[in-house]
């Protein structure tokens, strides 16, 4: 596997050891994303206002290793929240990280919580 991708592993909520305080909610555009640095890793955080939910994933797109997913388009595919890469429109589930185009690469997903107006990202 590519060494950049090896740095990113999905963190199930039950395995969170540390909640990283990212930024105030107001720093994240509605129905859009922003990039946050967590321990030298770029994490894309998505404020899915239309659903009233938040998601986080690796910022690097596994298609061409570009740090771009935070600038992608969020939407829904048969009830699954998804992010489409802004470069070549590969899409990934924001719940599981699964590639929704049927290719064998996926993205790492991280839990998000909101407390007292701040966004926190769950890490190992
Ligand atoms: S770099 Fe993301 S789809 Fe190509």
Automatic annotation (TrEMBL):
Domain Rieske, residue spans: 20-121
Coiled-coil regions listed: none
TM ranges: none
Assigned keywords, A-Z: 2Fe-2S, Heme, Iron, Iron-sulfur, Metal-binding, Nitrate assimilation, Oxidoreductase
Record InterPro entries: NasD-like, Rieske-like_NirD, Rieske_2Fe-2S, Rieske_2Fe-2S_sf
Top-rank taxon: Bacteria
Keyword Iron: yes
Any Pfam family hit: Rieske_2
PANTHER family to which the protein is assigned, alphabetical: NITRITE REDUCTASE (NADH) LARGE SUBUNIT (PTHR43809)
Name listed for the protein in its UniProt record: Nitrite reductase small subunit NirD
């Amino acid at each position: 596997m590519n060494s950049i991708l090896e740095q990113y592993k999905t963190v199930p909520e039950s395995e969170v050891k540390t909640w990283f305080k990212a930024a105030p909610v107001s720093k994240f555009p509605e129905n859009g994303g922003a990039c946050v640095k967590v321990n030298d890793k770029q994490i894309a955080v998505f404020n899915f206002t239309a659903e009233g939910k938040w998601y986080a994933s690796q910022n690097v797109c596994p298609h061409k290793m570009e740090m771009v997913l935070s600038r992608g388009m969020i939407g829904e595919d048969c009830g699954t929240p998804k992010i489409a890469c802004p470069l070549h429109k590969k899409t990934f589930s924001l719940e599981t990280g699964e590639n929704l185009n049927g290719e064998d690469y996926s993205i790492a997903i991280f839990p998000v919580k909101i407390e007292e107006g701040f966004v926190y990202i769950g890490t190992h």
